[in-house]
Write a structure and sequence with these properties.
By secondary structure, this protein is an alpha/beta fold. The chain has 19 helices and 21 strands. It binds S-adenosyl-L-homocysteine.
Length: about 550
Amino acid sequence: MTSPDSSASAVPPTPRNATASAGKAYLVGAGPGDLGLVTLRARDLIARAQLVIYDYLCNPEMLRWAPPGAEILYAGKKAKAHTLTQDQINDALVQAVRAGKLVVRLKGGDPYVFGRGGEEAEALYAQGLAFEVVPGVTSAVAAPAYAGIPITHRDHASAVMFITGHEDPTKETSSLDWPLLARFAGTRVFLMGVERLPIITQRLIDEGAAPDTPAALVRWGTTPRQGSLAGTLATIAALREQHDFRPPAILVVGGVVACRAALGWFERRPLFGRRVVVTRTREQASALSDLLRERGADVLEIPTIRTVAATLSTAETAWLAGWKSGVEKPHWLVFTSPNGVEYFMRSFLACAGGDIRALQGIRIASVGPGTTKKLAAYYISVDRQPETFTAEALGCCFAPDEVRGKRICLARGNLANPELPAALLAAGAAEVRGLTVYETSPAPAAAADSDSPIPDARARFEAEGAHFIAFASSSAAESWAALNLAPQGDAPIPRAISIGPETSKALRKLGIEIAAEAQSSTVAGLSDAVCAAANISGCSQTS
Ligand code: SAH
């Protein structure tokens, strides 16, 4: 209600931050680490943010969702290495919202679970500024779940406590009721407890908890760096010491820990604990990366090659344009890679006035399923695909009279295998015309913006090494060798996995030893070969 005598009564009261401002802060849970556990709401807000303030425990990969031009601010908080104080963070939030910005304050896990989110919201409220909260999947639940520990279970625990391990249990003024924690019959989940682990466990025992109460630590839960360690209240601190098990980690105390042996699904995945380099162009990497991640691998996508459309000569352009009226049309159009299809179609449609019917009557051959799938995306079905997916097999998969006297067009990249045209000519083709539709070049060196908070795969490779490197083409092998990257110190040197015989041939020529070759020259075959090389049965990582 507006007051009747106020001169301002004709207009609604002005909110304090109404000046320019649709400014608002969103306190957003970034989840425990696995990018798949971030909420849709979080992703949507990051994609609209003008300022993102993030913490040490947020997976920085999600910063890729921010729009170009968004300001990204690191608020830090690695134990003992605070980058900004809490007051500075509150100030930064207040200033930005006041200036009318859409601010996303990203916090690991859930913003209100030991994340000081409450204080930040209060600071905004005190200034009359708008905010919203987006809950996240907390590590207190997710890390145990990924380690095979359900925090409640009808047989073990009907209640859960989330406890800060930051408090000094020897302090007189501790705000925790230790006798209650020791007596509690449910699951006790401690966050931030690694540093004080010996005193936490001792205090619980001193206050009457059974020393053989099961206890487990889960570090970097839900990420490829996850590790877990189980013992009892009496042993877990010594085990931690022995395994040099470092934070961030969750301590779970209670009967539910016993479930871990049966339910520890995440660390049992075949490629868990294995780092695999994927060497493909940025555009193509994701299918292979997805398959490998699904099997638990820590994937480093290092682009080695970049493809660009080749400029066709005037004669080539005129030739393609002529197909529309049937002039010099080839009998066969042959594709040896998905890139070949993509770049050919772009050039061809430009020459043929965008009319796919100019391909009518031409028979289509494809080297394998990836290429065939790409053709299908253009609603083109293939007339021929060899049983094994190599250029050599492709050269042999025609009947003699399909080739003899025929005109064949090969739409390929500049580094394509010269043996295929030779084989087709030897088989009696009247003409084999290579059309170079794309060019392959080494990917540019380091990321343009070396200050970027988004982890650079090359830098990670050099620092941490990898167990395997998956080669999906001979040109990727060649460009990888040209990059001359090597892991530092005793970081593992990756073993090469090849997609098929041609890539293997190129690798051998480069002096790269091959640990395994895919049985089927497809992305799925390559992923299977990585698993085979990792010797699935012998690679359990759980301790
Ligand atoms: N708001 C966060 C917790 C912040 S307190 C959340 O809801 O998850 C920081 C503590 O969280 C760390 O000391 C550690 O105990 C825990 N933590 C956060 N991410 C973790 C992860 N991926 N694995 C294990 N512990 C994690």
